[in-house]
Structure formats: structure tokens, C-alpha cells
Amino acid sequence: MIGMSRTNVGAPEPIARGSTAVPRSRSPSYLLAGDRLATGVVEISDDPTVLERGGFWAVVVDFEGALRCVRFADVRSVPAAGPAALRRGPWRGPDPRSWTTSLDHAAYVAGAVAIRERIAAGDVYEVNLCRLLSAPLPPAGPGGGPVEPDPAALAAVLAAGNPAPYALALDVPEAGLRIAGASPELFLERDGDVVRSGPIKGTGRTVRDLRDKDVAENIMIVDLVRNDLGRVARTGSVTVPALCAVEHHPGLVHLVSTVRARLRPGMGWPELLAATCPPGSVSGAPKSSALRIIRELEPGPRGPYCGGIGWVDADSGRGWLSVGIRTFWFDADRLWFGTGAAVTWGSDPQGEWRETELKAHRLVGLASN
């Protein structure tokens, strides 16, 4: 991923790619993440080495590995009402009846059955099977074209109805990035040489809904994350400070673990991304086998869904990327959203379909008129 070959040992070496300078006066684009507002785009790059060079960057890594980094000139703190202050007007979302899915009920259940067969054959232990929902943006006026995408307006709706620890709004049309996220999951957080990941596995409406299967899934993915971080970490530094902790989010509970490591000397964002992308919690185990099965069963790329989305401050050595779940993005005059579930041998295919509905219901409802 990230344009590099992968091996089982050592740290992959990044391949330098391209950058484009952007005149500041032409760019009204922004990133709002937590209390950080970044404006004034000066550079767009797909080269991971820029994240070690300096500056404040928005970072989006697609599930398939495409990387887009956007450097901003100005960064400042803003109040919690940031999304509402940035929006161009009230949010106008799709008609709730207009959403379509890349995998309907029958296709999704058939995919889950096929994964269980692959597990029985010994090909894989767990696969996260996902589907993409999309709907056309409403018209701007009678007989007119669709409304202009407004990530901040949607982010304001999400912040009010579904607050999330890794909420963000990113609007950089010149890079093809128009995203409103309400992710509860930490993919990577870096502070100097200390790295932390917070994989989520296990979802229910209440704690009583969580099953032994959810605990087993979480432990399996924790082992995968430990292995990924171990490729770039100092020997003996990978630890698990929290295992299967219960976190409450609007309408849902999750099992969340924490994996921590210290990077080896010479390891930075390029090597860290190469070792860990895509996130293990939304792919499966073993990751290489799960990715192959995902390509076979899902009808198209996931894009920013299930990738990594966030920011890097290369001057301070800090940053975080969320897992791109509970996230909307705009493309081709449509609004997109992804939902999925982990399939294991203990899965009920119908139950996994219902989990995808549970994860989508609240947020798609908020985004729809």
C-alpha cells in the first residue's frame, strides 16, 4: 500500500512521488479537526516523505492505498462550534428514499456465507465485508444542478446529532477531498517516536448485545495491529495498555483496545503508513488474505472509507489519523457513506447484515433531508 511493495520483515522504504504548489489566494479550502482550523492551501502531494519535511498537513489515505497530503499555511484554534461557523448555509441533504447500496441484502449475505466457507478452508480467520451507500445531492433550485458540496454544514449536523472523538470537516476541492467525518476510531496517533492505535471490534446497541465473538474479533485484530506496529517499532516497545474496553457512542457501544509502540530510529510517517495501511480493524486477518477476498467480493474500491483521515504537524512531530468510518464524502454529485461488519466463523450472515444497518441508520438519517 501507499505505492510500495510489502514484505514480512523489516520496514518498507517509501517511494518519492509528486507535489503541486497551490497559490494561497486562490484557495478557500480548509481542514477542521477538533479545535484545529487549517486554511490557505500551499501544496498538494502524494509523497509520504513530505510528512517529515515540515508544515501542517491534512492527510487522507484511501483504503486501497492512494495518499493525498495537503499543506496549509495557517493553523489556529477555534471554538467547538467551528463547523457551524464555516458552513455556507443550512445543510441540504439527499432525499432519504434515494440512497442505494453497492451490495443489497442478498449479495451481502451471500458474501458473508462465502467468507465463512473460506474460513472453513483455512484461507483466512476474519474478513471485514463492507458496502457503500450513495445518494444524489438535491438540486440547488428548480431545474438547476445539484447543490454545492458543503462538508462543514454536514459536519455541523453530525456534531450536533452524533458527536465523535475524531470528527472533522475537510474541503479541498482542488485535491478532490470533500469529507465530513464522525469517526469514533483512532487509526494512528503519533507524538514524537510514540505511536498509539485504538482498534474497535465489537458493536451492539447495548453492552448486553456484545458477545464472545466480539471479544474474539477484538483480540484477533489487536494481534494484527501489534504485528503491524512491530515492523517499525523498537524491540520490546509494543504494549497493549487496554484490551476490550467498553466505549459508549450515540446509539452504539463498542469494544476498544489500545496498542502502543515506540518507533525505531529512522522510522517516520512514510514507514509507519507503509507498515499499517489499511487499518487492520476494517480489513481482517491475516491482512493479505483478507484484502484478496475483499477485492473478490466487494464490487468496487472503498476510497476514503476505511482508510486513514486526519492531520500531521511535521514541525512538532505530532498528528493523528482516524479510521475513515462513520464518514461521508462527496464525489460525482453524490454523497457517499460506507458501512460494514467483520465476518468470522462464528458469524450469522443475517446478523452481520443487521450490523451494517445499525451502523448506518443514525448517521444516514442525520445526513438526509
UniProtKB/TrEMBL annotation:
Q: Which domain of life is it from?
A: Bacteria
What is any Pfam family matched here? Answer: Chorismate_bind
Q: Which GO terms describe its molecular function?
A: 4-amino-4-deoxychorismate synthase activity
**GO process annotations (BP):** L-tryptophan biosynthetic process
The Chorismate-utilising enzyme C-terminal domain sits at 106-359
- Record region (Disordered): 1-26
UniProt protein name: Anthranilate synthase component I family protein
Whose protein is this, by species? Candidatus Frankia alpina
